[in-house]
Amino acid sequence: MATPYSHLIGTNRGELLLGTSSSYDDNWSGNDLIEAVGGHDTIRSFNGADTVLGGAGNDLIVTRGPPEQ
């Protein structure tokens, strides 16, 4: 059984953070906590109910539904 929530923390610049494992299957799902501590991070939230924190400037935050199959 997968972990019900993801908690992703980016501590350096230029990171790509993907919240993926917040449901009990392999689909992209919500309820992730994603923190970008350094600037210039790309954060993708693939479903609703995510908490996304951009810690410094120049972060790119993309929220959308699951990727097309």
Automatic annotation (TrEMBL):
It comes from the Bacteria. GO terms for molecular function: calcium ion binding. It holds the Pfam family HemolysinCabind. Signal peptide: none annotated. This is Calcium-binding protein.
